[in-house]
Amino acid sequence: MAFGIRGGAARWIIVAMVFVAIMLNYVDRQILALLKPTLEAQFQWSDQDYANMGTAFQIATAFAFLGTGWFLDRVGLRLGFALGVLIWSLAGMAHAFATSVPAFFAARIVLGMAESVGTPAAVKSAATYFNHKDRQIALGIGNTAPNIGAIVTPLFIPALAVAFGWQAAFLVAGGLGLIWVVVWFALRIKPVALDAVAPAPVPWLSVLRSRETAAIAIAKVLSDQVWFFMLLWLPDLFHRLFGMPQGTLGLPVALVYVMAACGALTGGFVPSRLMAAGWSVDRARKTTMLGYALLVLPVVFVQSVSSPWSAALLLGLVLFAHQGFSTNVFGVTTDITPARSVGSRIGIAAFCGNLGSVGMIQFQAYALAHGWGYAPALAICAGSYLTALLAIHLLIPRIVPIDESERGDGFVAAH
């Protein structure tokens, strides 16, 4: 039974639904990292097997992004988002029935392909249901969801696996996704951008060829490689540096993602306040992003500290900055792109980001095999955001919101 909700405040229900969906998205994908010691012992995985599974997930997600952003714009937000959550939930549950490395590979590939809907759907939801004034706050709240998922997962998944078996962790997370789909179809909330809800043709090649898409794509490559490196290797880093067993990893890992969640919220709040104070969109965005990029630099000292809590604070600062920076990358995208075609531009950029992250995942496995530890990867992380901001500035010298400079074809020329 569907039910409608009227009024401006009702739009925040959409934020809540997006928040829950993306949180479950990251619960599903992070379970494997947290259960690595258990599954490694049971199935005799090597570090390379684990890295290859991460690579398979990233590649599947990356290539799916080429189509899912367009698909979301083409069939509409309502149906496209629901199908994505349904399929990724079933794929997550399928992990519980895997008994071999190839079976886990298959489950990860389907999970990665379906979860690619999440990012363009979240950004398109903000562009569809919120005006320019409120959109950045909605994006900031929505962008905390991966961090809340990353907090909840280490706190509850290991305990759930110990109490009921590792299979239960996959089944419970996937089952919650199925409940989400039912609630999503029951909601009826009026959008701000009426043309963004219905299916619409999108000039995909025009999006692909634009300098703005190149800027967002480069920023996603450089920032996503840090995020996915942390997501996949963070528990192992604490285990190797501080000898922490699986049962004690939860709290320091959770602290890292609590700080990341705070970063996402500030990523929405800070530029909004600067714009309210009279700053231009361009100045507010780029100044905010520069601040976050500078906060990442101390990550090179992680291996020099003696306490896992000190390391957690340094790594948490990195993900605080990452999420603030990432929220503004999404914000720039909605600034310069009409709501009806946001999915396509974000999909292309996310394809680049996920595919680029494969190199970082494989590099870390190579580094461990050759005794380099985590120092080289941490150095790469330190410089990624300054480089990403430079690319944005060179390709989009002046960010002008679409409602001030919309062209006939729906895209903004470089300024």
Automatic annotation (TrEMBL):
Domain Major facilitator superfamily (MFS) profile: 14-400
Protein name as it appears in the record: Hexuronate transporter
Topology term for the membrane: Multi-pass membrane protein
Transmembrane segments: 12-35, 55-72, 79-98, 104-123, 144-162, 168-187, 214-234, 254-276, 288-305, 311-334, 346-368, 374-396
Keywords on record: Membrane, Transmembrane, Transmembrane helix
Pfam families in alphabetical order: MFS_1
Source domain of life: Bacteria
Subcellular location: Membrane
